[in-house]
Amino acid sequence: MSTVALNLRATWGRTYGRLVGSFREPTWLITDAILPNLGMLAFVMLYRALGAPRSFETLAVVGGLLATYWINVLWGMGAQFYWEKQSGQLQLYFVAPCSRMAILSGMALGGFLLTTARSAFGLFLGFVVVGVRVEPFSLPALLGVFALTMIALYALGMVMASLFLLWGREAYHLSNALYQPVQFLSGLYFPLKTLGPLGIVSAGLVPLGLGVDALRQVLLGAGAHALMPLRFEVALLVGLCAFFLWLARVALAHLESLAKREGRLTQRWQ
Amino acid sequence: MAPDDPLNPPAVEVRGLTRTFRAGPTFGGCPGGGEVSALGGVNVRIERGEIFGLLGPNGAGKTTLIKILTTLLFPTAGEARVAGYDVVRDANEVRKRIGLVSGGESSGYGILTVRECLWMFSQFYGVPGKVAGPRIDLLIETAGLSEQARTRINRLSTGQRQRMNFARGFVSDPDVVFLDEPTLGMDVNAARAMRQYVARWVRERPGRTVLLTTHYMREAEELCDRIAIIDHGHLLACDSFAGLRRLVESGQHVELEVRAADGGTPVLPSLAGVPIVWGAPHPERGTRALKFRLPPGGSLADVLRELEARGVRIEAIATRETSLEDVFVALVGRGLEESDEREDDGAGPVGAP
Question: Has residue B27 been placed in a domain?
């Protein structure tokens, strides 16, 4: 069997496990689909109450939808190796001949598909229930920017996951500490431009903010209050995709090697 | 060690394998408690087609050796090869050829069914669907989980989960299987079925190899072609069970149930020059156990005659050959359970992570 075929099977195996498992627990509808959207609705209501331009409501909905992916990357992707390690399962992944990237890709794909199913409820809330509006837009542009954002975001999740090969609870705290700052620096519920120079720094580091800003530009045009022209943001996103995928691969190999040297790959208690 | 045939390398070959761990935490850059040696220059060669047992108390280095052989841990020094491939340089080639089952491990996700979990792991080894399906069915049947095939893992009992873990180790039909305490938590019947499966698996697939660590001496006696005894990171002996017995040949073990004619217990430290040990009295029968080891060339008849001469009536006699446990005690200096209890009390050597 070729390496490519092996890794495709491994990716599908891990994706299937995540998809089937999650759909078997109907409580996710409440905890993962309904509750996270309440924050987004609060911002829509706030902008409406303040009489802000209608485009601000759309900004909040787009940000709220992407926030669900960020939560998934952070806890379902970045921290997943922590749970695997705690349950003693991580070693079973590491004695398998498939690439670690294949397993992480399976986690990413499964997580992405699940989150997309969940964010459908957010779309319904935003566009049907509270009635936010968008300008006429190009569907290929929307899908392209969305795909780039997701690749960059989940590749960042892979980088974070690699930290758990060496660290346990320490990396868990890092994930915890990143949640709110990244959400803030990504301007999920306001235009990234509002952050001024900090917004530019954020856009260069965190794919979430850049993706949100680019998606808003596709959907709202000038009403998006964009940080920089769309083509620059797309170019930056392509760069971040390549950088994070490369970094994930290097970090996984390096930290796996270090963890094996220090004997920390299979320690559960750290 | 025999020279390698490059076309037919041994299943496992270990030369001077050493592994040390940093002991204790570090504070403010200050080193902790130095280093702990988990393996101290181990040499072993396991031929293809063998079922090889590794016996030792907790912290002896068994799991460390298995972790190195399964590419989960780097050795500090020395060399280890599995199926002819170096475990550090050719780790991926090794992984294609091995399976691992650790006792008490938790594999799969609670929300998946037994069958789904086994299928998921088969995909990590690239097993095509047409092959994976029948193989998984057979493994589920062997593990006695046919009725639970579509049951979620989080609804299985501990023993059932352990049987599923066992099945998982064989789902890729590996060349070399590492079984680290595989029957831990299984009931007697399930453990027997697993042993039978392992024996059959090796018999029906020439060249397939099993490295087994176990706390159950009978399991090693029953299953293994050769057994190595390891303690404090050093191999103390490695041979077939018969060979190990010869190594510490200690004669025949005799256990008598006796009754003193006057109802009391005679004070006898030895009989016909053989040291004896008195067991606890049997309250209902009014008898008492008496144990001794008859040295090679010793006469059981002389011992029995002396007992009768002292007014002791013999109710029952049982003899047994030197067991693996006797060998273990002779080589390690303590019994397996005793060793584990000591380490549980924190009095034993520091175990490797």
Answer: no
Asked if B201 reaches chain A (Cβ–Cβ under 8 Å), the answer is: no
Q: Is residue A267 part of a domain?
A: no
**Residue range of the domain that includes B203:** 12-19+36-247
User: Could you say which of A6, A88, A260 has the minimum Cβ distance to residue B74?
Assistant: A260
Read off the pLDDT of residues B250-305 as tens digits, 9 standing for 90 and up. 677 888 888 877 666 666 667 777 777 777 778 777 788 888 878 777 788 888 88
Query: Which amino acid would we find at residue A59?
Result: L
The boundaries of the domain holding residue A68 are: 3-262
- The total number of structural domains in chain A stands at 1
Average pLDDT rounded to a whole number, residues A40-58: 92
B234 and B90 in one domain? yes
Sheet strands (E) in chain B: 12-22, 35-46, 51-55, 77-82, 85-86, 98-102, 176-180, 209-213, 226-231, 234-239, 252-260, 270-271, 274-282, 287-294, 312-320
Same domain? B242 vs B256? no
- Is the distance from CB of A160 to CB of A253 less than 8 angstroms? no
A260/B21 touch (CB, cutoff 8 Å), yes or no = no
pLDDT in tens, B254-266: 888 888 776 666 6
Please report whether residue B332 resides in a domain: no
Take residue A6 and report the two structure tokens written for it: 């092996």
Q: Which of A14, A98, A263 sits opposite B353 (nearest CB)?
A: A263
Q: Give ipTM to 2 decimals.
A: 0.85
